[in-house]
Here is the input.
Amino acid sequence: MQEFIPVKVFCLYHNIELSFISSLQEFNLIEVIDANHEKYLRASQLPEAEKIIRLHHDLAINTEGVDVVLHLLQKIKTMQQEIQLLKNKLGAFDTEAWPFYNLDEK
Here is the structure.
């Protein structure tokens, strides 16, 4: 069962305008659910929505900028995962794991 938060309550709690949520929806940064003549956010979306609000308020980034920042953060996360995967693959070729023999000794 999914839980939903009314957008009006979310906006009051975070001291933001309803229009800001609408602009986030236009950029597909969050999903707003319309039901019973009311707008809702999925509770599972709250951490992402709050991150967006912090970027907007703390760093004074507009909606377009937030979109770019989130895209870059996702790219960084993907690249970090790829780096870890490559490190794991290289670990199999670690020279310390191979049995080397000293041919100079008699």
Q: What stands out?
A: DSSP finds four helices and three strands in the chain. The two ends are 73 Å apart (CA to CA). The beta strands are 4-6, 32-35, 38-42.
